[in-house]
Amino acid sequence: MLRILGRASSINVRKVLWACAEFEIAFEREDWGSGFKATDSTEFLALNPNAMIPVIQDGDFTLWESNSIIRYLASRYGATAFYPGEAQARARIDQWIDWQASDLNRSWSYAFMSLVRHSPAHQDPQALAAGCAEWSRYMRILDRQLASTGAYVAGSQFTLADIPIGLSVNRWFETPFEHPHLPAVRDYYERLSERPAYHLHGRNGTP
């Protein structure tokens, strides 16, 4: 059985949990990370030298990095409807997964640490305003993409790209600041919410 190491409140662990629910993969999860087993232990570092969650073990195969994990799970367990093998269709999905990790994820960092985590190191009003503006800029990019497709981030059907993006959208709405009106993002949020797996691991009250 698939083994998942990481606390269930982590946004990156939730990617893996949501993928497993969509792909009907049985798993066992163990609590590692903040407040649980230490990821800087010798045991954990042997699995991931970065001391970060999640980590999966699938038999004797170990993998870290959440986006790599969900790609592996889709490929390994035959979820071709969500992650097709055809090169161009897969590349379009991958570009949005990578955009979430490299651009959108970075844009929310200061605002999230300030407004949700209440980090003392992230309470500068000017930096917070700049962070919220930058986050909003990337969400407007997403809004235009969703308005173009009329449905999901990579096209008319739910794909693997919607897992990291969908969790980002949940974080956007759960972070308390004045959001610009983004109707396509709001419609997307409601569309995703029709999926039972999203209620379990996405829109579940955790930012």
TrEMBL record:
<protein>
    <submittedName>
        <fullName>Glutathione S-transferase</fullName>
    </submittedName>
</protein>
<dbReference type="InterPro" id="IPR036249">
    <property type="entry name" value="Thioredoxin-like_sf"/>
</dbReference>
<feature type="domain" description="GST C-terminal">
    <location>
        <begin position="86"/>
        <end position="207"/>
    </location>
</feature>
<dbReference type="Pfam" id="PF00043">
    <property type="entry name" value="GST_C"/>
</dbReference>
<dbReference type="InterPro" id="IPR004045">
    <property type="entry name" value="Glutathione_S-Trfase_N"/>
</dbReference>
<keyword id="KW-0808">Transferase</keyword>
<feature type="domain" description="GST N-terminal">
    <location>
        <begin position="1"/>
        <end position="81"/>
    </location>
</feature>
<dbReference type="InterPro" id="IPR010987">
    <property type="entry name" value="Glutathione-S-Trfase_C-like"/>
</dbReference>
<dbReference type="Pfam" id="PF02798">
    <property type="entry name" value="GST_N"/>
</dbReference>
<dbReference type="InterPro" id="IPR040079">
    <property type="entry name" value="Glutathione_S-Trfase"/>
</dbReference>
<dbReference type="InterPro" id="IPR036282">
    <property type="entry name" value="Glutathione-S-Trfase_C_sf"/>
</dbReference>
<comment type="similarity">
    <text>Belongs to the GST superfamily.</text>
</comment>
<dbReference type="GO" id="GO:0016740">
    <property type="term" value="F:transferase activity"/>
</dbReference>
<dbReference type="InterPro" id="IPR004046">
    <property type="entry name" value="GST_C"/>
</dbReference>
